[in-house]
Design brief:
The chain folds into two domains: 202 residues, Gcn5-related N-acetyltransferase (GNAT) (Aminopeptidase); 166 residues, 3-Layer(aba) Sandwich (Aminopeptidase), CATH 3.40.630.30. With 376 residues, the protein is α+β, with helices and mostly antiparallel strands. It is built from 13 helices and 15 strands. Strand 11 and strand 12 form a beta hairpin. Helices cover 28% and strands 34% of the residues.
Length: 376
């Protein structure tokens, strides 16, 4: 268990950092409602493993006289873009306690923030030095000249987090879609194979080739728990995906119509065994692979892994400007829950730190790899 280290202090305000989530933070996150009013809102049920994932983890707290007012996590995933090795800090688990909460009326961008140091929130002012040099998180091992990016996924309706990210100097480089795939009676497929250890190098080579034009692609969680599944034609994978089990405690399915629809559905006995009005147990799909012309095989694979796992729902997230998303946009047939809950949209937000201009252009012009694992 790590000890706290004070990064910044001003009168009775301090910013502390730890490398493992404290029980105080875990309890706070269990009580934090995720999602936005008018959309799906929930509590995380199995956070601890994900909060410790990644090569480096830092958890920052803003305290006033020892009392926590806000927190934010940084997950380090070293990355290489256009031949340049750089830090990649994923910002997640951002949470503010009252009385720091305010209700913003409009979205701010970098061009609106010339005087933002005077208007930004207390947490924002304390975060700005860290966002300018995140290597400070490493203490004595910091390197202020290290190329890096800060990276966050922010729901487009979440003005508070959007404006907070602007205070930290982040800008939008793209958008993503988050959506469900469901089958109340998933069909078994005899064509599905779990990738064996000796097959992993060849499968990973195919996956890397598929995502070669994406930025921020990483492979750390591929083959986690030996849960990468494929359909092959001959000896070649034509469809593949990694699965992770996730559970949420539901606060709101996304408005009165969605809540009413779920309530009516769960009165049907065979549906109530699959969907609960107060929790969702589902799979997160990542590292999805689909060769052109094999879209039906991908759908067979998704349905088959639901049946194999005893689940009925899966979640996916992906950059809107990709051929992969076009498969689901065009083919549709995503199931009844998608018809009820629809698709959520979020901005891909980054801040470049000591990054050459030619490397920045890769992020502006190319799609971003979005791991559902980190956002579910």
């Amino acid at each position: 268990m790590s000890t706290s280290r004070i990064l910044l202090s001003y009168h009775d305000l301090t910013v502390e950092v730890e490398t493992t989530p404290s029980e105080e933070l875990m309890e706070h996150m269990r009580q934090t409602v995720m999602g936005q009013a008018g959309g799906l809102q929930y509590h995380h049920s199995n956070l601890e493993e994900k909060m410790k994932s990644g090569d480096e983890n830092y958890f920052m707290y803003l305290r006033k006289s020892g009392k926590m007012l806000g927190s934010v996590g940084f997950c380090g995933k070293p990355t290489e873009t256009a031949g340049l090795k750089h830090d990649n800090w994923l910002i997640r688990y951002f949470s503010i306690k009252a009385p720091l909460r305010t209700i913003p009326r409009k979205r701010k961008e970098k061009t609106n923030l010339q005087d933002e140091n005077k208007r930004s929130s207390v947490l924002g002012r304390f975060m700005q030095p860290i966002s300018a040099d995140p290597s400070q998180l490493r203490g004595d091992k910091q390197d202020p000249d290290q190329p890096a990016i800060l990276f966050a996924i922010i729901d487009q309706s979440n003005l508070r987090s959007m404006n907070f990210s602007a205070q930290m100097g982040l800008e939008t480089i793209g958008s993503l879609a988050g959506f469900s795939f469901s089958r109340m009676r998933p069909r078994r497929s005899g064509r599905i194979e779990a990738v064996k250890a000796h097959e992993q190098p060849a499968i990973l080579e195919q996956i890397r080739a598929y995502y070669k034009d994406f930025t921020l692609f990483y492979t750390d969680t591929i083959f986690k728990n030996n849960d990468y599944y494929v359909i092959k034609v001959g000896e070649r994978m034509v469809a593949g995906l990694q699965i992770y089990p996730v559970e949420w405690k539901i606060v709101d399915f996304g408005g009165s119509l969605a809540n009413r629809a779920i309530s009516l559905l769960t009165r049907i006995p065979w549906v109530s065994k699959r969907i609960s009005p107060d929790k969702i147990s589902f799979l997160a799909f990542d590292a999805i692979y689909c060769e052109p012309g094999y879209e039906n095989d991908l759908y067979e694979l998704m349905e088959g892994v639901l049946e194999r796992s005893g689940k009925y729902i899966a979640m996916m997230m992906m950059d809107l400007e990709t051929d992969l998303y076009a498969i689901f946009r065009n083919k549709k047939n995503l199931g009844i829950l998608h018809k009820i809950m629809g698709t959520s949209h979020a901005d891909i937000r980054v801040r470049f730190i000591h990054m050459p201009e030619e490397v920045k252009q890769h992020f502006y012009k190319r799609p971003t790899y979005i791991p559902t694992y980190d956002s579910s």
